[in-house]
Amino acid sequence: MREVYKNIYLAELPLPNNPLKYLNFYIIKDQGKSMIIDTGFNREDTKEDIMKIFKELNLKPENTILFLTHLHSDHTGLATYLEEMGLTIYASKIDGDLLNNSVEKLDSMWQDTIQQGVWQGLEEDQLDIEDHPGFKFRPTAHINFIPAIPGEYIQIGEYNFEIIDLKGHTPGIVGLYEKEHKILFCGDHILGKITPNITFWGFQYGDILGTYLESLDHVYNMDIDYLFSSHRFLVDDHRERIEELYDHHDKRLDEARKALRKSGRSTVRTVTKQLQWDIKSKNWDEFPKAQKWFAAGEAHAHLEHLRALGEVTMEEEDGVLYYSIKE
Ligand SMILES: [Zn+2]
């Protein structure tokens, strides 16, 4: 654990067997109320790590806020455990509700994920929701939370954090901005080295890649000296990193256009197979099942963005979606 700014500590919580490696766990300490940001996976080792930190910094659970940036299980896995310990939880209404709707297999978030797989043409891959990493490591009980409403503030000692809407990586991801000290806790909105996963969340959330790019525009214009991300190294220059992320998605959109030109009317699955992936497998059949969900979701988000731009059309046939480029 190290102090990264006055009274702000950073500890790394391991995420075994996960390409993200660890969660950057932040603690903002004050004599009165303190705050921790996100939790790591629901694992015994992680509980012990957090307990050690509480002891070392002399944090009192009843005087500590747990701020959840977004619903992913590497950020929320121990929310129930920490709530039982006496912490007060803040989460955005959207992600908090989604989290509470993903406890059981039959809950709406998993049923929606299964439906999306059918739309994407993944039925022939015979994926099971049990293969979905989000399902495997999900929290196993509901949480009670105070809605984190963008524009409202949380005061911790000398810091006055504004809750900031960062939606895109998830439908309701939020960050904390301290204007005077030029600090932004951004969750997974911007990461060093790794490109944040942007996936299709269902038509009710619209063009989510477009939404993500707008959230990037917003942060680009913010005055930030310290960008505290949730994984990997800390980014020095947020504008430089945002430009790299714009480039990444531009290239991806181009790949999707090329795939549609080559294959004509295509399912999301057909397009996904033609995109470049960092995974070491020769072809789609060898692609790890867990990654097929993510890959198709990402391709789908890009196709929906092209549709929002008016470049692509979509139609449904026998429950499967087909995309075509407008010539
Ligand atoms: Zn995430």
TrEMBL record:
| SUPFAM superfamilies hit by this protein | Metallo-hydrolase/oxidoreductase
Name of a matching Pfam family: Lactamase_B
Q: Where is the Metallo-beta-lactamase domain?
A: 22-231
List, alphabetically, the PANTHER family matched: ENDORIBONUCLEASE LACTB2 (PTHR23131), METALLO-BETA-LACTAMASE SUPERFAMILY POTEIN (PTHR23131:SF4)
Which protein are we looking at?
MBL fold metallo-hydrolase
**Source organism of this protein record:** Anaerosalibacter massiliensis
